[in-house]
Amino acid sequence: MKKCEKCRNEFNTLYRVKYLSKHYSKKDWVFICKVCLLIVKPRNDNYTYGGTWKG
Ligand SMILES: [Zn+2]
């Protein structure tokens, strides 16, 4: 199990993405769950998918 960076819940499957511009976040890649992915993805120019993590 691993924690989602956004909602802080634990999941067996997380998605490695970039979704914030560097101006707002020093972190590049973060692991987020599918629910959060669907929230941050639409119309996001900063969104980049980097793989799936499975626990
Ligand atoms: Zn989440």
Brief sketch in words of this structure:
By secondary structure, this protein is mainly beta. It has one helix and five strands. The structure holds zinc ion.
Class based on secondary structure composition and strand pairing: mainly beta
Question: Order of strands in the sheet with the most strands?
Answer: 4-3-5
Provide a count of the helices. Answer: 1
Number of domains: 1
What can you tell me about this protein's structure?
With 55 residues, the protein is mostly beta strands. It has one domain. Helices cover 13% and strands 36% of the residues. It has 1 helix and 5 strands; from the N terminus they run E-E-E-E-H-E. It has one helix at 34-40; strands at residues 2-3, 10-11, 13-18, 30-32, 48-54. The strands form 2 sheets. The protein has a 3-stranded antiparallel beta sheet with strand order 4-3-5. The radius of gyration is 11 Å and the shape is globular. The termini are close together. The model has no long low-confidence stretch (mean pLDDT 92). The structure holds zinc ion.
Write the layout of secondary structure elements.
Elements: E1 2-3, E2 10-11, E3 13-18, E4 30-32, H1 34-40, E5 48-54
Bound molecules: zinc ion.
The site of zinc ion has 8 residues, from helix 1.
Protein traits:
binds zinc ion; mainly beta; two-stranded antiparallel sheet; 13% helix; 5 strands; three-stranded antiparallel beta sheet; 1 helix; 55 residues
